[in-house]
Design goal:
By secondary structure, this protein is an all-beta fold. 0% of the residues lie in helices and 59% in strands. The chain contains no helices and 11 strands. Strands 2, 4, 5, 6, 9, 10 and 11 form a 7-stranded mixed beta sheet that branches. A 4-stranded antiparallel beta sheet has the order 1-3-8-7, with no helix packed on it.
Length: 120
């Protein structure tokens, strides 16, 4: 079993910054892609940023130039540095971790989410 836990959310004024962290722990043989998603009230969950195991990154157009995704594979930890936050960034942010178990099968797990609220 694998647990994914996010932290770092909170209330911040527009223009401010937050750093989210996500730790995956448990029966992980090797990490694969890890990503941040978000879901605002009344909207579908959307990809914010993704980092592949090799380091390649993908960003949503709405966050390019403001958010930076990074990871520490040794610690199974994913980060999201969010700068120049806007009101429309308000959402619950979820971490998604894809990984391999010792039998080389691939799995994915979601965290419980962390609330980010940006006041205008």
């Amino acid at each position: 079993q694998v647990h994914v836990v996010e932290s770092g959310g909170g209330l911040v004024q527009a223009g401010g910054s937050l750093r989210l962290s996500c730790v995956a722990s448990g029966n992980i043989f090797a990490n694969n892609d890890m990503a941040w998603y978000r879901q605002a009230p009344g909207k579908q969950r959307e990809l914010v940023a993704l980092m592949r195991s090799g380091g390649a990154t993908v960003y949503a157009d709405s966050v390019k130039g403001r958010f930076t995704i990074s990871r520490d594979n040794a610690k199974n930890t994913l980060y999201l540095q969010m700068n120049s936050l806007k009101f429309e960034d308000t959402a619950v942010y979820y971490c998604y971790a894809e990984y391999y178990t010792v039998d080389y099968s691939r799995h994915g797990s979601w965290g419980q989410g962390t609330q980010v609220t940006v006041s205008s």
